[in-house]
Amino acid sequence: MNNSIIDVKHLTKKFKDFVAVNDISFAVTKGEIVAFLGPNGAGKTTTIKMLTTLLVPTSGSVRLSNSDVVSHQEETRRTFGIVFQDPSLDDELTAWENLEYHGVLYGVEKNIRHGRIEELMKFVELWDRKNALVKTFSGGMKRRLEIARGLLHHPKIFFLDEPTIGLDPQTRNHMWNYVVNLNKKENITIFFTTHYIEEAEKVAQRIIVIDHGKIIATGTPKELTIKTNSKTLEEAFLKYTGHAIRDESVSSADAMRARRGMWRHH
Amino acid sequence: MSAIYILWLRQLKRYLRSRSRIIGSLGQPVLFLVALGFGFGPTFQKAGQGNYIQFLVPGIVAMSVLFTALFSGIEIIWDRQFGFLKEILVAPVSRMEIMIGRTIGGATVAMIQGTIVFAISFLAGFRPPSAGNLAFAFVFMFLTAVLFTALGTAIASKLEDMQGFQLIMNFLIMPLFFLSGALFPVDSLPGVLKMVVAINPLSYGVDGMRGALGGITHFGLSTDFAVLSIMAVVILAVGSYLFSKIQL
User: Fold this and answer.
1) What is the structure's pLDDT at B226?
2) CB contact set of A138 (below 8 Å; sequence gap of 6+)
3) Touching check for B82 and chain A: CB below 8 Å?
4) GO CC terms on record (chain B) (predicted)?
5) Interface size, chain A vs chain B, as Cβ–Cβ contacts under 8 Å
6) What is the arithmetic mean of pLDDT over B120-146?
């Protein structure tokens, strides 16, 4: 038996000649809160996709709660909840329906499900809008609903890929308080990526820094600051990853698609 | 099972909430029914082939089922672009259940469209021999709907953009429809065309419905039933496999 709830070994993802994630290994202990930091295009989202069965690794292995994500897909899918970087709600359904359908897909019993939906929707302050179509929601409301949805089936691990993008400081604060609380109360493991260094500093117990598909540092916020001889975590982050501005948000998969499209049209 | 049910329910709700879709997709079948039915009716009658409306209605119903069923595949591409596909793909549900749920959902929508066309055809003078015949025709309508929804969904699972899907559909739909015996009797076609009709799965749907409604069948009802069922199962299996290969 292994004590880590997330166990990543020599994980690599190649898109043709482009190596998005290059032989990374790390482990996360049950109940830990880990921030995954890196500039745009560093390989964060590709890694999360491999951790959550959306992408098959080129090589290496990922185990969640001791089952392999490639050979035991359904088991591993049951163990985690996720908030994706981009919206993933059905706009034509109501807020309540989005959660209800999720609960059914995850096999949550009806009597538990309905109580849980109410509890979560009240927490994200959407209960009074439960019968509104999601297409009438603002970006922030959609985010909150996705967070509620990700937690509905009591996951052991909660993945959040840039969860606070587009949220105002109040909601952001509120959200992290809840997530930290949840971590304490139910011992849920939290693995998140963010662009806000101060969030990582405040929330995460440990930070993993990735750049160019490689893990370049790992430690508590304090350790990273001391190691690089910096005053703040932000300064430490910039020392690790450099000051150059990266291409905005072209994910590796998009890059691959663009390339394929190019050939198709010629 | 509950996953299949919930995917079915989702598609039904989405359909019932978009009235423009319901009404918009009736235009073409009604036009065909009225223009061809009344236009060719007298000639058909004179040639000794009987009532053309009776002959044509199963073909027009099959056409509306074909259009709705194949095009429901586009919802996969919508889901891909609006992100909901990720939510479905990370769910602890087998890809076979996803494929079946989507197919039954799309097929139900296609059958509602087909039923509306049936209802309209009554206004044009169509009469089934009995209620039992009509019920029997629904069996073939269901198989046709499942087969083509599965086909549309399987194709869409490989595509990323709407334009590509539209192109393939335009390429498929017209030949499938025109070379299915929906509009004319197959028996007197030249040999090559007859063969083309025989490899077109829609022909068996049209033939089955027509036979069930008391018309003359070309292939025989049991052949129609067998061909439609086997093809539906095969395409569902292929679609499930393609779903399991989707990476985002």
Assistant:
1) 98
2) none
3) yes
4) ATP-binding cassette (ABC) transporter complex
5) 75
6) 95
Best A16, A101, A110, A259 residue to mutate vs chain B (most B CBs within 10 Å): A101
Q: Residues A198, A251, A140, CA angle at the centre, nearest 5°?
A: 50
Q: Long-range CB contacts (< 8 A, 24+ apart) of A20-27? A: A20/A46, A20/A213, A20/A252, A21/A46, A21/A47, A21/A50, A21/A57, A21/A213, A22/A212, A22/A213, A22/A214, A23/A60, A23/A214, A24/A60, A24/A210, A24/A213, A24/A214, A24/A215, A25/A60, A25/A215, A26/A208, A26/A215, A26/A218
Q: Which fold has domain A4-85+158-265?
A: Rossmann fold (3.40.50)
B84: which chain A residues are within 8 Å (Cβ-Cβ)? 88-90
Chain B hits for A255, Cβ within 8 Å: none
- Interface residue B6 vs chain A (CB under 8 A): yes
pLDDT in the model for residue A263: 45
Q: Do A88 and B87 touch (CB under 8 A)?
A: yes
Q: What is the pLDDT of residues A135-158, one digit of tens each?
A: 999 888 898 899 999 999 999 999
What sign for the dihedral angle of Cα B26, B31, B37, B38? positive
Residue the block writes with tokens 């909901």: B84
CB-CB neighbors (< 8 A) of A74 in chain B: 92-94
Which is more confident, B23 or A145?
A145
Give the model's pLDDT for residue B131: 93
pLDDT one-digit tens code per residue, A92-126 = 999 999 999 999 999 999 999 999 999 999 988 89
- Kindly list the domain boundaries of chain B, sorted by start residue: 2-244
Q: Does B81 touch chain A (CB under 8 A)?
A: no
Structure ipTM: 0.89
Q: Residue ranges of the domains in chain A?
A: 4-85+158-265
Put simply, the answer to whether A92 touches B18 (Cβ < 8 Å) is: yes
Instruction: Note the pTM of the prediction, 2 decimals.
Output: 0.89
Determine whether B10 is exposed, middle or buried from the number of CB atoms within 10 Å of its CB (0-12, 13-18, 19+): buried
Those residues with Cβ within 8 angstroms of residue A59's Cβ, 6 or more apart along the chain or in another chain: A10, A11, A12
Q: Which pLDDT value is given to residue A186?
A: 85
**Is a pLDDT exceeding 50 seen at residue A261?**
no
- Chain A interface residues (partner B, CB cutoff 8 A): 49, 52-56, 74-75, 77-78, 80, 82, 84, 86-93, 97, 101-102, 104-107, 149, 253, 257
Tokens found for residue B127 = 């009469």
- Closest chain A CA to residue B246: A54
Confidence of residue A2 (pLDDT cuts 50, 70, 90): low
pLDDT in tens, A13-61: 999 889 999 999 999 999 999 999 998 888 999 999 999 999 999 999 9
